[in-house]
Write a structure and sequence with these properties.
Elements (H helix, E strand, L loop, with lengths): L23 H17 L8 H13 L3 H25 L4 H23 L1 H5 L1 H5 L4 H14 L5 H16 L6 H13 L2 H30 L2 H22 L4 H14 L3 H5 L6 H6 L3 H11 L5 H22 L7 H21 L5 H15 L5 H16 L5 H17 L3 H18 L5 H15 L1 H27 L31 H17 L13 E7 L5 E7 H9 L5 E3 H8 L3 H12 L7 E4 L10 E4 L9 E3 L10 H30 L1 E3 H12 L7 H13 L3 E3 L6 E4 L2
Parallel strand pairs: 2-6
Antiparallel strand pairs: 1-2, 3-5, 4-5, 7-9, 8-9
Helix pairs in contact: 1-2, 1-3, 3-4, 3-7, 4-7, 4-9, 8-10, 9-10, 10-12, 11-12, 11-15, 16-18, 17-18, 17-19, 19-21, 20-22, 21-23, 22-23, 28-29, 28-30
GO molecular function: ubiquitin protein ligase binding
Organism: Arachis hypogaea (Peanut)
GO biological process, one term: ubiquitin-dependent protein catabolic process
């Protein structure tokens, strides 16, 4: 193909100059000015917008944009002044309606004018950095109409009066309000804020300041909170209907400050209706309202939390220190659980399960439960009561609920080792007497304790269950090895591992001669099958079944403790015996003997013995004799010793001393572990580290820690620095 030749095109200017009519600009502007007048006078239907657009286009094209723009400003200003006078002359409620109607008309006119002057808007205005037509129209409306000397203040006052009337319960034209407020916002955020919002917030603050003061003087706390909540919701609703959404946070802050923040302390402490009364009377709805309102102000929830904490601590302190409550340990613990349930429900239902309040409640319970040194003992007694009889016939899930509640109280204890000491005693009695309602429940609680405190805490408790199983197998083997048992009493022996069970050195009780033979047979059998072991009878922990014949040949089977059996068997050969004589014959410790005699002679319906003189207290010279007149509708009669009761003061002191002795090696072991790791440490840091390590079981006393350090220095585990006497070194 042959290549095409390049062709060059050239555009030449007009050879003849276009001549423009000298009066063109003036004539054209007159046409456009007339059109603007017609638009404002609602006569736009006869206008040719295409022709008008072309005229405006040509004016800009022929460099008359400035004349067009300045003429527009002058014409619009003239019309807006007329409009302003019309609005100012409107009286009463017609004022806002007239303003709204003229604003709508102005917007329509402005839209038409902008369409006609679109070319100027797109070319001349950007290049000359002037205000666009629509924005110009808004600015002129703002300056000429809204900010006129007679309209600005009147408009503000009219709007604020309508808001006040609505607050006082009157129905207002919300649609009109919405239109006027939107007009202010369309004129610019600063117009809305300066001409209305600033004054609205100020007037609102004064309104709610006066109203809250009136409410405080005439309402109780619950009613006040309802009114405050209603006012808050009204303001939120008002914003949604006709105010700028950005005003919501501002007006709610005003209501919160004037109605809540300014009166917080007065409300929570209000006599007969404040926070304390709400807590006492379980007013969940009022408490929930207080929580939701107070959380809106910076320190609101802290005030509520502090008052609740102080009241719970005071209530708990009264409960745990009340001498009347201490008489019944089970009731004592049940009241603690009821108190915890009460406040758990309040926090759950009214305080949306707020963790801050939960932590405050836990802190309060930990504080007052540990004010009473007997709390560990009482919690163990509560468990003992429930696992003996209190949970009988209760479903498995309900048993777990009770055990979980017990564990909750257990977590509050600072002296968990004291609880362990008592729990071990009570568990031993339940297992040996066979009076536990459920092995599953017992094991479930031990699993919970193990999860909470670790294997060391429950190893001995688990060992007790192992001994019970081993003892059953041992008795099976014993009776299989006996070819002739004869008429000797049947014997069931529980062989307890020393260290696992809470056995205390106790004087040997003198068993009846009828039992000695079979006891010796078992001893011989056991020692014959287990080399290197020793057996010692723990008669204070056993039980027995006796067949007894009373007056008129009435027969009963009595379920008694080993001590009670020893006492009753004496009356086979004696009619009357004094307490002193029974003590000498049986060798039972006097305190235990008095408990036995109380249960045998002083409990109505179980009094197989009679006592002279008749009283609940036992004296050494009191006389006892067999009660021939004893009757019962049951063949089997269980005569329980006075057990599972709170210890007497001497017993409690003795238990405490044993606990303190048990703590010494634990404190020493912790000190050695720490020093072995750190090698050198000062006294204060040793105390802090030991406390940290042992606080899951008990809170060690710094004085005791110091004594254990001194003991370790004497035994050459540690040495004191020669220069700094408070610095210690570990001796490898």
């Amino acid at each position: 193909m042959s290549s095409q030749k390049k062709r060059t095109f050239q555009i030449e200017a007009f050879k003849h100059r276009v001549v423009v009519d000298p009066k063109y600009a003036e004539k054209t502007w007159k046409v456009l000015e007339h059109a603007i007048h017609e638009i404002y006078n609602h006569n736009a239907s006869g206008l040719s917008f295409e022709e008008l657009y072309r005229n405006a286009y040509n004016m800009v094209l022929h460099k008359f944009g400035e004349k067009l723009y300045s003429g527009l400003v002058t014409t619009m200003t003239s019309h807006l002044k007329e409009i302003s006078q019309s609005i100012e002359s409107a009286q009463g409620e017609i004022f806002l309606e007239e303003l709204n109607r003229k604003w709508i008309d102005h917007n329509k006119a402005l839209q038409m004018i902008r369409d006609i002057l679109m070319y100027m808007d797109r070319t001349f205005i950007p290049s000359s950095h002037k205000t666009p037509v629509h924005e110009l129209g808004l600015n002129l409306w703002r300056d000429v109409v809204i900010h006129s000397s007679k309209t600005q203040a009147r408009l503000r006052d009219t709007l604020l009066e309508l808001v006040l009337r609505e607050r006082n319960g009157e129905v207002i034209n919300r649609g009109l309000m919405r239109n006027i407020i939107k007009m202010l916002m369309d004129l610019g955020l600063s117009v809305y804020q300066e001409d209305f919002e600033k004054h609205f917030l100020s007037v609102s603050a004064n309104f709610y300041c006066l109203e809250s003061q009136k409410f405080i003087e005439t309402c109780d706390c619950g009613d006040y909170l309802k009114k405050a909540e209603r006012r808050l919701n009204e303001e939120i609703e008002r914003v949604s209907h006709y105010l700028d959404p950005r005003s919501e946070i501002k007006i709610t802050n005003v209501v919160e400050k004037e109605m809540i923040d300014s009166h917080m302390h007065t409300l929570v402490h209000m006599e007969n209706s404040g926070l304390v009364n709400m807590l006492v009377d379980d007013k969940y709805e009022d408490l929930g309202r207080m929580y939701s309102l107070f959380r809106r102000v910076p320190t609101g929830l802290t005030v509520v939390k502090d008052v609740m904490t102080a009241f719970v601590r005071d209530t708990g302190k009264q409960l745990v220190m009340d001498p009347e409550r201490l008489r019944d340990p089970v009731d004592f613990v049940q009241r603690l659980l009821d108190l915890k349930d009460k406040y758990d429900k309040i926090i759950n239902m009214s305080f949306t399960n707020d963790k801050t309040f939960q932590n405050a409640l836990n802190s309060s319970f930990e504080h007052f439960i540990n004010l009473n040194a007997r709390s560990p003992e009482f919690i163990s007694l509560f468990v003992d009561d429930k696992l003996r009889r209190g949970l009988k016939g209760v479903g498995e899930e309900d048993v777990e609920i009770v055990l979980d509640k017990v564990m909750m109280l257990f977590r509050y204890l600072q002296e968990k080792d004291v609880f362990e000491k008592y729990y071990k005693q009570h568990l031993a009695k339940r297992l040996l007497s066979g009076k536990t309602i459920s092995d599953d429940a017992e094991r479930s609680l031990i699993v919970k304790l193990k999860t909470e405190c670790g294997y060391q805490f429950t190893s001995k408790l688990e060992g007790m269950f192992t001994d019970m199983k081993t003892s059953y197998d041992t008795m099976q083997g014993f009776y299989a090895s006996q070819s002739d048992v004869g008429d000797s009493p049947s014997l069931v022996v529980h062989v307890l591992t020393t260290g696992s069970w809470p056995t205390q050195p106790s004087p040997q009780c003198n068993l009846p001669s009828e039992l000695l033979g079979v006891c010796e047979k078992f001893r011989a059998y056991y020692l014959g099958t287990h080399n290197g072991r020793r057996l010692s009878w723990q008669t204070n922990m056993g039980t027995a079944d006796l067949k007894a014949t009373f007056g008129k040949g009435q027969k009963h089977e009595l379920n008694v403790s080993t001590y009670q059996m020893c006492v009753l068997m004496l009356f086979n050969n004696a009619d009357r015996l004094t307490c002193k004589e029974i003590e000498q014959a049986t060798g039972i410790p006097l305190l235990d003997l008095k408990r036995c005699l109380q249960s045998l002679a002083c409990v109505k319906g179980k009094n197989v013995l009679r006592k002279e003189p008749m009283s609940k207290d036992i004296a050494e010279d009191d006389t006892f004799f067999f009660n021939d007149k004893f009757t019962s509708k049951f063949f089997k009669v269980k005569i329980g010793t006075v057990v599972a009761q709170r210890e007497s003061e001497p017993e409690n002191l003795e238990t405490r001393q044993r606990v303190e002795e048990d703590r010494k090696p634990q404190i020493e072991a912790a000190i050695v572990r720490i020093m072995k790791s750190r090698r050198t440490l000062d006294h204060n840091n040793i105390v802090a580290e030991v406390t940290k390590q042992l606080q899951s079981r008990f809170l060690p006393n710094p004085v005791v820690i110091k004594k254990r350090i001194e003991s370790l220095i004497e035994r050459e585990f540690l040495e004191r620095d020669r220069v700094d006497r408070k610095l210690y070194r570990y001796l490898a």
